[in-house]
Structure formats: C-alpha cells, structure tokens
Amino acid sequence: MADRPQQLQVHPQRGHGHYEGGIKNQRGGGPSAVKVMAVLAALPVGGTLLALAGLTLAGSVIGLLVTSPLFIIFSPVLVPAAIVVGLAVASFLSSGALGLTGLSSLSWVLNYLRCASQSLPREMDQAKRRMQDMAAFVGQKTREVGQEIQSRAQEGRRT
Predict the structure, then answer these.
(1) Which of the residues 19, 63, 111, 124 has an alpha carbon 20 to 30 A from that of 96?
(2) Which residue ranges traverse the bilayer?
(3) Same domain, yes or no, for 63 and 81?
(4) First to last CA, the chain
(5) pLDDT by residue (tens digit) across 97-156?
(6) How far is 48 from 54, CA to CA, in rounded Å?
C-alpha cells in the first residue's frame, strides 16, 4: 500500500463560484399566471383586513382615552363592585360544583343500594344454607364424640 501513488480527483464546478439567483425556474421567464392572479386576488382582501385592524386599534385607543378618567373617578365604586361580582360568580360556580358532586354521590349510593337489595335475598339464602350445614356438621360431630365417649366408658368398665 505504501508504494502506490495517491491520486487527487478534481471535479469542475459550474458557474465558477458566482451567485445565480437561488432556485432556478425550470420553464424560464417570470411567475406563472396562476401566481399573478393569486396575488391580485389576495391584495385587496389583505389591504381591507389591514385597514379594519387599524380602525379597530384606533377605536380601542380612543375608547381607552375617553374612559380612563371615568375609571379613575369611579374606582372607589367600581373596584368593590368588581370584587362583589367576582365573589358572586365564584360562589355560584362552587355551589353548582358542590350540588353536582352531591347529586352524583346520591346517585351512586342509590345505585349501590339497588344492587345490594337485589343480591341480598340470595346472600341470605346462602347464609341460611351455611348455618344449616354447620348445624348438621356440629350435630354429627357431637354424635361421633358421644359415641367415642360411650365406647371408652364401656372399655373402662370391662377392664
């Protein structure tokens, strides 16, 4: 590998380093007719909307200039009134939220009781059966223990 000569490849560049104006248009010439029509259609609409935005801004500034002295003069009345209105709105909203929570809780309890009352007779029957089975088991066990005691007593008498 050391005995091979190194080769340098040089690729010629087009344009020789000067700027050619960005992306080239494949067809040549200016913008297409569709683009020109789109600009001509959008120009009046954009201008109208810009004029309306300017008028709205001017009206807002004039309204603020006119009402600022009124806000300053009536601020001892307006600030407490705004606080009262804010508290009233907050109380109505919290009242509604608490009422909705109460209704949903009541609905859940009623649904739970309805489901429980439907399954209660079945559970009572199961409890009765378990008690009867347990009573029968205890009776059987008592008989067995009694017989065991009798048999041991008889064995004790014999010996």
Answers:
(1) 111
(2) 45-65, 70-90, 92-112
(3) no
(4) 116
(5) 999 999 999 999 988 888 877 777 788 888 889 999 999 999 999 999 999 988 888 888
(6) 10
- Report yes or no: 71 and 78 within 8 Å, Cβ to Cβ: yes
Helices (H), the chain: 33-73, 75-158
| Torsional class of 21: left (φ above 0), alpha (ψ -120 to 50), beta (otherwise) | left
The model's pTM is 0.36
pLDDT category, 18, cuts 50, 70, 90? low
Question: pLDDT tens digits for 63-104?
Answer: 999 988 888 888 888 889 999 999 999 999 999 999 999 999
CA atoms within 13 A on the CB side of 19: 2
Are residues 66 and 81 part of one domain? no
Which of 21, 47, 73 finishes a domain? 73
- State the DSSP code for 24: P
**CA dist list (Å): 74 to 34, 63, 68, 70, 85:** 58, 16, 10, 6, 16
To the nearest 10 degrees (0 to 180), the angle between helices 75-158 and 33-73 is: 100
Alpha carbon distance 32, 93 (integer Å): 59
Which amino acid appears at position 136 of this protein? A
**Tally of domains within the chain:** 2
